[in-house]
Design brief:
148 residues, mainly alpha, 2 domains, 83% helix
Length: 148
């Protein structure tokens, strides 16, 4: 691959990554702002804006890896609504799978063991994880028509 083609490919990938990151950072920032406003009603301070940026950086890369693996490309010949719904479901499952891998890695880092971590996750799953999965689903419903 020549140098000019490599530069063009790098610029294209960085542009796509930047678009993904900005969209996700805005989305997560809105959620963090909403959480801060809700907690402020009870005089509880919340200043975790950095975590939302880190999440957006990681999730943007996960989306790009999924796109590189050609996830959601099966419906590319169908109308936009079917493409959007198909990509939304596939990429939501991809993010949930990534979250599972993240749980395994965190359990090894903290030394808690996988069974204990999974049990803790299952007890908190209905209050923390399902809303995040649903927000992921709604986020992707708005995202994929823009990038298709």
């Amino acid at each position: 691959m020549n140098r000019a083609a490599l530069k063009e490919k790098l610029a294209s990938e960085l542009g796509a990554y930047l678009i993904n990151f900005v969209y996700l950072a805005l989305f997560f920032g809105v959620f963090v702002g909403y959480k801060r406003l809700l907690l402020a009603q009870y005089d509880i301070g919340y200043e975790n804006y950095g975590i939302s940026l880190i999440k957006a950086l990681i999730l943007a890369k996960v989306i790009m890896i999924g796109d590189l693996l050609r996830l959601g490309r099966k419906a590319d010949t169908h109308p936009l609504i079917f493409r959007t719904l198909h990509k939304t479901v596939v990429f939501t499952l991809w993010v949930v799978l990534f979250r599972g891998v993240e749980i395994v890695v965190i359990s090894f880092i903290h030394g808690t063991g996988l069974p204990a971590r999974c049990m803790r996750l299952c007890t908190a799953h209905h209050t923390r994880c399902w809303p995040m999965d649903l927000s992921c689903l709604s986020r992707f419903c708005r995202f994929f028509p823009c990038v298709s």
